TrEMBL record:
Full protein name: Transmembrane ascorbate-dependent reductase CYB561
Short name of one Pfam family: Cytochrom_B561
Enzymatic reactions: monodehydro-L-ascorbate radical(out) + L-ascorbate(in) = monodehydro-L-ascorbate radical(in) + L-ascorbate(out)
Subcellular location: Cytoplasmic vesicle, Secretory vesicle, Chromaffin granule membrane
Membrane topology: Multi-pass membrane protein
Keyword Translocase annotated: yes
Gene Ontology molecular-function annotations: metal ion binding; oxidoreductase activity
Gene this protein is translated from: CYB561
Location (main, coarse): membrane
Function, as annotated: Transmembrane reductase that uses ascorbate as an electron donor in the cytoplasm and transfers electrons across membranes to reduce monodehydro-L-ascorbate radical in the lumen of secretory vesicles. It is therefore involved the regeneration and homeostasis within secretory vesicles of ascorbate which in turn provides reducing equivalents needed to support the activity of intravesicular enzymes.
NADP as UniProt keyword: no
TM annotation in the entry: 12-33, 53-74, 86-107, 119-139
Cofactor(s), by name: heme b
Length: 140
């Protein structure tokens, strides 16, 4: 009866999988930053480099932080549920804010350059993914 009251232990190898996932995530962020810095001229808000904010923010927000927010319940299974929920919510909020900066950057860049918005499948799929992510977070 006592065993049913204790929390289950972490699956074997979870810490290795987590270390690999974090290493891969940070590598993707570093590679995107290097791509923007070395091959696209850098990142700036008030110049032609404003567009470069978009890919970096999307990788940080919608890939890395959102993924970490999803993994929080598995990693911190021995912590109190309240603290895990707070961390989960904070990571999702940071992911949303950073992704929103990326969306604003690309729309502002298009407006300044006189380009049409939402002209590609990438644009439509991206705005759909961001909108559904926002709606899902708002409804919870």
């Amino acid at each position: 009866m006592e065993d049913s009251l204790t929390r289950p232990s972490s699956p074997a190898g979870l810490s290795c999988y987590m270390a690999v996932s974090q290493l891969l995530g940070l590598t993707v962020i570093a590679m995107t930053g290097a791509w923007m810095g070395q091959y696209r001229g850098g990142i700036a808000w008030e110049s032609a480099l404003q567009f470069n904010v978009h890919p970096l923010c999307m990788v940080i927000g919608m890939v890395f932080l959102q993924g970490d927010a999803l993994l929080v319940y598995r990693v911190f299974r021995n912590e109190t549920k309240r603290s895990v929920k707070i961390l989960h919510g904070l990571l999702h909020a940071f992911a949303l804010v950073i992704a929103l900066v990326g969306v604003i950057a690309v729309f502002d860049y298009h407006r300044k350059k006189g380009f049409a918005d939402m002209y590609s499948l990438h644009s439509w799929c991206g705005i759909a993914a961001f909108s559904l992510y926002f709606i899902q977070g708002y409804l919870q």
